[in-house]
Design goal:
Elements lengths: L3 H12 L1 H19 L5 H15 L2 H12 L2 H29 L2 H8 L9 H4 L4 H6 L3 H14 L6 H11 L6 H9 L2 H7 L1 H26 L8 H10 L1 H15 L1 H18 L9 H28 L5 H18 L13 H14 L29
Helix pairs in contact: 1-2, 1-18, 2-3, 2-4, 5-6, 5-14, 5-15, 13-17, 13-18, 13-19, 15-16, 15-17, 16-17, 16-19, 17-18
């Protein structure tokens, strides 16, 4: 995933969100199917690696495409609609594994449905924001007219052209606009202090959140019951988190909810070692509460991070943040080994990290009700100017 996210983020920003989604999904399906025919361990590991290189960006590409298509008021509900099948799919894997029993058969059942993504070029429109940001105005106009027909909305012929002209209307002199168009991500990072602050803060958030999320997953053995049941239970615990985010993100705001989710995770996990029986019913309940909080934080991070960065580099910067999260995912399986120093060490570590992340939420602005920034220089504007 460290290899995948920067590559697919570049593809998404260069050739479009839809292209990244189709390449990622169908490529992973093809490699996963090939993996089921591997004749050696080396071939299996190679197929597993290439499958993840392609497939790791399915969710980020779909998420960015979704939020760029929708208005502010629909983003959180759509995030729920995207998250429910994700959690349901994860829980279904436990059932599929139980029924098939053998990994080759499992792969041959699980991967072929991804080939349905080959229909997306005909079924799924490209992001209008991406088209406009890349000066593909005729295609953007065509997509908007198509959306209007599907929604049975009558638009005057010149309304779309006027709207697109407004979106691309220069707010500074021509030379400055051209410089912004050609500005590389590295130059923008050096030039804009606001970009640096947001990006470095998000790096810490993602590393911590993903470490805790997967650290809880690998500690599922601490729960009573069968491995398949525990896996399904942990996946099901994501559903209340998604529902709470849907209800609260647009009411409380991105920053307050992220702070509350991180604190909930921290308090639940730090409390586990204080119980007389940390592996009993109450320990399991706190474990699941921590899982709910970690899922809320990670889901809120997808929304919040995507809204903090401009359209010109949104997918790449979201991929960069998620790549930092992969460092946390790589270290997460090592947390059970820390129990050698005391059974209290792993849950305490998993609780302290979100506590530290919660302290960083004051470094970035609230994005609730704000228009998505399109260019790097938009990050320097007063918040009211892009409301």
């Amino acid at each position: 995933m460290l290899v995948s996210l920067p590559i697919m983020g570049y593809i998404s920003d260069k050739w479009g969100r839809r292209a990244a989604l189709v390449v990622s999904g169908t490529g992973a399906g093809l490699l996963g199917l090939c993996k089921s025919f591997a004749g050696s361990y080396t071939a299996y590991i190679l197929a597993e690696f290439l499958e993840t290189v392609l497939g790791a960006s399915v969710y980020p590409a779909a998420f960015v495409l979704m939020i760029e298509w929708l208005g502010v008021e629909q983003r959180i509900l759509a995030s729920l609609l995207l998250g429910i099948p994700l959690s349901a799919g994860a829980a279904t894997l436990a059932l599929l594994d139980y029924l098939t029993g053998y990994w080759r058969l499992w792969a041959r059942v699980a991967y072929p449905p991804s080939f349905l993504l080959l229909l997306y070029p005909w079924l799924l429109p490209e992001s209008v924001r991406w088209l406009v940001a890349n000066n593909k105005l005729p295609q953007a106009a065509r997509v908007i007219k198509q959306a209007a027909r599907w929604n049975r909305v009558a638009l005057p012929e010149d309304a779309i052209d006027k709207m697109l002209a407004t979106q691309t209307e220069p707010v500074v002199d021509k030379t400055e606009v051209e410089d912004d168009e050609e500005e590389s991500l590295f130059r923008a990072f050096i030039k804009y202090g606001e970009l640096r602050r947001r990006l470095l803060t998000c790096f810490v958030w993602w590393s911590s959140a993903v470490f805790v999320f997967y650290g809880l997953a690998v500690r599922a053995h601490a729960l009573a019951g069968s491995p398949h049941g525990n896996y399904a239970l942990l996946a099901a615990a994501e559903l209340p988190a998604l529902l709470l985010n849907t209800l609260l993100l647009d009411r409380a705001g991105r920053r307050p909810l992220l702070t509350a989710a991180l604190l909930l995770t921290a308090l639940a996990l730090i409390a586990i070692p204080l119980l007389p029986d940390s592996e009993g019913v109450y320990g399991t309940a706190l474990f699941l509460v921590g899982k709910v909080g970690a899922t809320m934080a990670l889901n809120a991070l997808y929304v919040y991070t995507a809204e903090l960065f401009p359209t010109r580099a949104r997918q790449r910067l979201l991929a960069a943040c998620s790549t930092c999260g992969r460092l946390g995912a790589i270290l997460a399986p090592l947390t059970p080994l820390l129990a050698a120093y005391g059974t209290w060490v792993p849950p305490t570590l998993l609780g302290v990290l979100p506590l530290a992340s919660a302290a960083l939420t004051r470094l970035v602005p609230e994005t609730l009700g704000r228009r998505l920034p399109d260019r790097f220089r938009d990050l320097q504007l007063p918040q009211d100017s892009i409301a």
